[in-house]
């Protein structure tokens, strides 16, 4: 009952504040790139603040997340981590499925921020454009983030990694930093529970491995906290 009450209080505060911040970002984006980036980080801060104060959720990071340009893989169990990325990394560039860019307003702002579209049926030219965008972001000192499962996965489930990871891994030729997390452990249906959301940085995956080996290492690392409820 307490979790239900807390969640019902959290919903209007978080989503109402998010709507205001996204609208403000849309107004600022044409005039100030730095101001726009600052608002995006403020949204991430608002996400954490509402989780901590209204839901009783705290964040813990185990291991070191390297600063600067790097390629990260994250487990994906809740919307929390997608919004939280700017609190963990500096101006992260996320590989996102093409459908998200069709969302009114949000999709346009995602392009402005520098998110990279993944087209599941992409041809060679699209792959080259994706590689160019990724290397361009890293040249600016920005980290790359991929959620290799492609969508949110309930805590306790370990679906195979999508083929997109292998393609990007081969295209970029970079070491990979896999990160496990357990945000879904604090969610049952629409109710959210207090506790600690843990990010755990796994062993670095070197470039140049065979696809099967790279996927196996990545799958094991991002599911390190994925225990059945």
From TrEMBL:
The keyword ATP-binding does not apply. One of its GO terms (biological process) is phosphatidic acid biosynthetic process. One of its GO terms (molecular function) is 1-acylglycerol-3-phosphate O-acyltransferase activity. Keywords: Acyltransferase, Membrane, Transferase, Transmembrane, Transmembrane helix. Pathway: Lipid metabolism. The chain crosses the membrane at residues 12-31. This is 1-acyl-sn-glycerol-3-phosphate acyltransferase.
